[in-house]
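Schema walkthrough. Field components (list of strings):
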Amino acid sequence: MDYETLCQDCRLVELCLPYGLPKTELEQFETIVKNKAPLLTDQYLYQQDDKCRSLFVVKTGSFRSFIYSEDGAEQTIGFYLPGELMGFDAFQHGRFTSSSIALETSKVCELPLSKLNDLCRLIPSLQSQMLRVLGKEIESDHNQILLLSHRSAKEKMATFLLRLSHRYNALGFSKTEFNLTMKRQDIANFLGLTNETVSRLLAELNHQGIITINRRNVKINNIDSLKVIVE
Amino acid sequence: MDYETLCQDCRLVELCLPYGLPKTELEQFETIVKNKAPLLTDQYLYQQDDKCRSLFVVKTGSFRSFIYSEDGAEQTIGFYLPGELMGFDAFQHGRFTSSSIALETSKVCELPLSKLNDLCRLIPSLQSQMLRVLGKEIESDHNQILLLSHRSAKEKMATFLLRLSHRYNALGFSKTEFNLTMKRQDIANFLGLTNETVSRLLAELNHQGIITINRRNVKINNIDSLKVIVE
DNA sequence: CGAATCATTGAACGACCTCAAGTTTTGTGG
DNA sequence: CCACAAAACTTGAGGTCGTTCAATGATTCG
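Field assembly_structure (string):
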């Protein structure tokens, strides 16, 4: 077996689906994980309406998921960092209702649904984990709804930065300095804004000294100021 | 056993969790369904941060779910009609992350989680149904994100009416005439608008003859016009 | 019947968008 | 490695849609 598929040695195991599984069951889980060739920037992991045969976990890199609305415009639904699962939206009809694209060279673990389902029946705690992760997805969508509904552009921008900071921190990276792997346009679309507005807001935060931004590199100088903006 | 708990005789069974279960398994499922006293208008089904011991299905009436954001303001997350499940957002940490309140006198079926989990292990097709319904919830949240991000107030309003029409139709009710069970304020909040804007938009649609609205009674006179607005 | 809640309507303001031009960075082929 | 084109990003000016504030009307309920 390929070294890379060993969950036991994966630094992300505590954030991932098999979190909390006893060693013997973790070993069972490892056997269903498939490797996939790394994806290059702008390469699709899956496309809307594709038949869904697997779920995917980000191992390295990052992804953007989005939906084509009826008029053909894209709507970004979310960004995925290491340890996060993608593909749940296909559970209803067996086909993906969104597309997922690599924002940089990225690796994923593939979890074939047929095997995953069988294993869930054998391992109740894996079953619970599945539901927990699904609940997390729903909660995160609710937070996004919250953000989009009644927040000013500035609040949206600050929240976006704080959430990224939080997620990178959970991954063991710096919570004050990181690189945005997505375009301004992607952020704007995700937040229900225009890229011009995003550009201006980042410039303003930069000017106020709250962040230092250079292209895609962000340094948060005053995290509390961001929190004040969000309230 | 109370008659009301018999899923076999429930007109909603095709929309509900046990959809597609063979008769013997449906009978098993029925044994875990608990009755609950009907809820009156403005009565909470559950509150944010409550420990989640059960999921709930709307049997009659309707509900509004919402989240208190940090500043204490409410954000309406969704409206629930008969056949729809509530409570999934609690899967992550075992506590509800939203509150649910009856919009009118309403009945629910209660599905105790402990028993439901056990049964899912025994009945694989129930397990699949759970995931399917969860996928539906996620897809519906994604549609809401889509709606909130880049749609004009008019598009939001038209979409809202069309979705209600569609859902009432699926329940066997008229798709052209129904009563709104929620306040203008609730609709506004749900759509990321103000109640004044909702009022004006409904008045405008009424003026154009596309709908006829009288307080909470809506008649859709020209469903195609609504679809044109949505595109 | 009176108070409270819900809904409607008007006028003015402002946040964000649109349009447009310019700058910086990235990518490609010679 | 350079030249050039394309893409990404920034910045400015003006316009618009939806909000805010305010007043009035309709309905519900004790």
